[in-house]
Amino acid sequence: MVPAVGMPHNSCGLEFPGLVMSLMGQPGFGSDLLSAPEALMQALEDLDYLAALDDDGNLSEVGIIMSELPLEPPLAKALIAACEYDCVDELLTVAAMLTAPSCFVTEADREEAAVSCWRPLMHPEGDHMTLINIYSAFTQHNQDEAWCTTNFLSHTALRLAVVIRAELLEVMQRIELPVSPPAFGCQDNCSNIKRALISGFFLKVAHDVDGSGNYLLLTHRHVAHLHPFSSYLCRRPCPRPPSWVLYHEFTVSRDNCIRIASEVHPHMLMELAPQYYLGNLPSSDGKELLMELRQSLESGDQDRGPDHRDRDRDQHSRTHRNPDGPGDPQSSNELCVVQ
């Protein structure tokens, strides 16, 4: 069996912005940025968008915390944001699964058999939640190698994800970041996971331009498609392609695929990164839609008056700070993770 072409993740090494972040504190760094190569300038710009730099170009307080986490910067920022949204337990799993090699494996001419095994673990909220389902099922089966083989999953990759997750948790505890208890399964928790992911990956958002799965990457202006192994294409019945997705990786290939994608709602983008989407984002139909949404939201707020806005803020705060949500979180979790 070989690693599947579908849904691979980056290797355990830091991406270039992470390397730049590790160098920020070195003597002499930043003394000659005018002659720095374009890749370095882009990395610094990305770190600035993530609020990892202060006005002087040094690591900010958030940037210092991000540098403590052995993750690519967007994942580090998402994990820090998870502290605010009470979904640290789930983001630890997502970060570990995205940092480890792909857990999906296939054999020649057996892709459909592999997808049939993965399908019960696919989550309707997207590929990031599917990774949580897979990790949970793996641990519930006592990290059994035979279970992995039967389900076309890499035991080595999943074992590495367990190790990475434990190391990340240890770092979180060492630097005294709050770690919320598990709450996976309730709708509020899924929404908060997406909020945390947007906080780190708002540069990686795509919009379906024609309703048929042709996605325009808002930042890079490429047109791409969901990977064939995405849960949005493999579930039965097959759902409509989501209008807006946050993705982890874009691969330039014959099909230009975005991999590990989850649906996000545009109002979340306006809520979490309005300055980028309304100011720095290149012009596009997607940007115009977001600007129209922002105007309609502002108009609606004015029409409803201050009392309604106060109630909305109270409800929004409860969504952020109540990890359990309505009902019993344990029973919700059992419904969500399919073994």
TrEMBL record:
Q: Which residues form the Helicase-associated domain?
A: 42-132
Does the record carry Metal-binding as a key word? no
Q: At the top level of its lineage, which domain of life is listed?
A: Eukaryota
Q: Where is this region: Disordered?
A: 295-339
Q: What molecular function does GO assign, one term?
A: RNA binding
| Segments of skewed composition (Basic and acidic residues) | 301-323
Q: Where is the composition biased (Polar residues)?
A: 329-339
Could you list this entry's UniProt keywords, alphabetically sorted.
Answer: ATP-binding, Helicase, Hydrolase, Nucleotide-binding
One Pfam family named in its UniProt record: OB_NTP_bind
Q: Which GO terms describe its cellular component?
A: spliceosomal complex
What InterPro entries does its record include? DEAD-box_helicase_OB_fold, HA2_WH, Helicase-assoc_dom, P-loop_NTPase
> What protein name does the entry list?
Putative pre-mRNA-splicing factor ATP-dependent RNA helicase DHX32
